[in-house]
């Protein structure tokens, strides 16, 4: 499952910055030009130009040691067809290294001993990144690009570079799965996973009612219960994500995004829980519970239970991420498409939904360390992987062998490879080695080239395509760990986690209002204004970085 997620998620990102840091150069080929210039960098082997990617001028064999800070990561570089094609084309062989135990402990040990491999990939936001920058352990990527491969700037986003630049103005990392606001116009077919879903046959049986208003929503749930409760043992009118110690995804950001509740108004962050429309819908769910339309197990079920219930045809409606029940959706569709789930207009307060699409913060970041023996080949490989060509090679392999280009120049698997992908994904991964290649790549191309969505998922995945917005300005607002603000946020999150189920199970709207007022009073006492001031400052910094202020 994790492999499929990586392919889809970064199936867009399909190529890692497998860039050439020559730590084990075959036949000593990586030693050319290693004398140090006045800027502290090895002298360039090839002439830098912004007109052509640097890797094309030097494809001599070189090996780069690349550390991936995930113990679950499994490299197929030496056996996968696609990675072997990348190596044949660029001359760069990647020696992937992964921790055998605790990732944080391994990384901290390498930092303390200055034994970092040549290239490293870690979680975006990992505190270790700042440690490495402060300790001077990383090469500024912009300086490497300036000296060796200015074509890097042609294949990367300026907003992304600005976003990830450090306080000294240098860029020490580059992300995967990162799409900047200025790239949104280039996106096609953005998949979204936040939809309001109903079982088609049950929905049509009650007359396909409007469920966008509180009244219509409750009436539809009641009608479904009245019709099916006697026919289906354990019938469930609606399911949600699980309740946990900090709340419930379905009733928190999911519902808020679906209602289009803004995160900021006139440049000031807005506590969306204060929104009148949002509270109206929470009261609607409270009323649903009072009417017996929310089954008691909804408050205790986890993902496995929900998906079993959907497979058993016990669920009418789901304010539930559609990517989490793809297996069940396919099963229902195969039996009869009319029994599968479809997205419809759900809860509304009159706004368009504002479904947050891919953001600029990304998933992981990749850095070139000062232990890299050949930073020239490293930055050139990074440029290659971030380019359209490198992304295509990592996702689709060699044109004419595993893929062909259509009239628009877009790649598609050959019939043989497409059939293997559809019939046996594990075998496809073993053959191509494409699934582990997610560290870098052109995220827009990766998204636009994503494989055709299976028919049972098409309507759900693309229902909200017109409502996708960039949430980059609101990325990384949370305070760093072990700070006053982080403790305040943790306390407020726990307070909300305690309050939310009480709101839904309240005996009346008056009791709901009292609970909500008590929540806001306790929130303020915990230091809300201090946290808000911190987040407002980070928000304004984000706007500045993105050129949106």
From TrEMBL:
Name of this protein: Extracellular solute-binding protein
Signal peptide start-end: 1-19
UniProt xrefs under InterPro entries: Bact_solute-bd_prot1, SBP
Pfam family, one: SBP_bac_1
Species assigned in the record: Candidatus Eisenbergiella merdigallinarum
Keywords: Signal
Domain of life: Bacteria
SUPFAM superfamilies: Periplasmic binding protein-like II
PANTHER family in alphabetical order: ARABINOSE-BINDING PROTEIN-RELATED (PTHR43649), DIACETYLCHITOBIOSE BINDING PROTEIN DASA (PTHR43649:SF12)
């Amino acid at each position: 499952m994790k492999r499929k997620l990586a392919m889809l998620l970064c199936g867009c990102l399909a190529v890692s910055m497998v860039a050439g840091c020559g730590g084990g150069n075959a036949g000593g080929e990586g030693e050319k030009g290693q004398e140090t210039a006045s800027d502290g960098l090895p002298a360039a082997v090839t002439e830098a130009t912004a007109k052509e990617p640097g890797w094309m001028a030097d494809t001599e064999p070189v090996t780069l040691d690349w550390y991936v800070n995930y113990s679950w990561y499994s490299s197929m570089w030496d056996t996968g067809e696609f990675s072997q094609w990348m190596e044949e084309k660029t001359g760069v062989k990647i020696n992937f290294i992964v921790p055998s135990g605790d990732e944080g402990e391994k990384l901290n040990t390498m930092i303390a001993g200055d034994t970092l491999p040549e290239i490293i990939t870690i979680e975006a936001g990992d505190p270790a990144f700042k440690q490495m920058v402060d300790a001077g352990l990383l090469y500024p990527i912009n300086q490497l690009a300036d000296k060796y491969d200015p074509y890097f700037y042609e294949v990367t986003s300026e907003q992304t570079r600005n976003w990830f630049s450090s306080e000294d103005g240098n860029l020490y990392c580059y992300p995967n799965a990162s799409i900047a606001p200025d790239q949104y116009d280039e996106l096609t077919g953005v998949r979204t996973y936040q939809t309001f879903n109903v079982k088609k046959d049950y929905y049509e049986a009650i007359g396909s009612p409007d469920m966008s208003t509180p009244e219509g929503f409750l009436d539809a749930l009641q009608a479904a219960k009245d019709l099916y409760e006697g026919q289906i043992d354990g019938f469930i009118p609606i399911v949600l994500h699980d309740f946990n110690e900090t709340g419930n995804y379905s009733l928190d950001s999911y519902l808020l995004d679906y209602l289009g509740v803004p995160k900021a108004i006139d440049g000031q962050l807005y506590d969306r829980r204060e929104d009148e429309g949002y509270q109206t819908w929470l009261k609607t769910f409270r009323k649903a519970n009072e009417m017996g339309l929310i089954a008691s197990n909804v408050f205790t079920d986890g993902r496995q239970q929900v998906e079993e219930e959907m497979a058993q045809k016990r669920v009418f409606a789901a304010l539930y991420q559609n990517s989490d029940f793809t297996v069940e959706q396919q099963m229902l569709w195969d039996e009869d498409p009319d029994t599968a789930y479809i997205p419809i207009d759900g809860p509304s307060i009159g706004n368009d939904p504002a479904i947050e699409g891919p953001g600029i913060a990304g998933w992981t970041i990749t850095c070139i360390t000062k232990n890299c023996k050949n930073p020239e080949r490293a930055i050139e490989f990074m440029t290659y992987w971030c380019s359209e060509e490198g992304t295509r090679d990592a996702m689709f392999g060699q044109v004419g062998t595993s893929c062909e280009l259509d009239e628009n120049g877009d790649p598609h698997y050959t019939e043989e490879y497409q059939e293997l992908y559809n019939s046996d994904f594990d075998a496809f991964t073993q053959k191509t080695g494409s699934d582990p290649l997610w560290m870098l790549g052109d995220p827009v191309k990766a998204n636009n080239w994503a494989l055709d969505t299976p028919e049972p998922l098409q309507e759900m995945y693309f229902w909200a395509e017109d409502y996708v917005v960039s949430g980059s300005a609101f990325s990384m607002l949370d305070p760093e760990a072990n700070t006053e603000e982080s403790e305040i946020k943790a306390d407020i999150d726990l307070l909300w986690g305690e309050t939310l189920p009480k709101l839904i199970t309240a005996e009346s709207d008056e009791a709901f209002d009292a609970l909500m007022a008590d929540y806001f009073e306790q929130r303020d006492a915990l230091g809300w204004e201090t946290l808000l001031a911190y987040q407002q400052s980070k928000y304004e910094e984000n706007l500045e970085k993105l050129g949106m202020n």
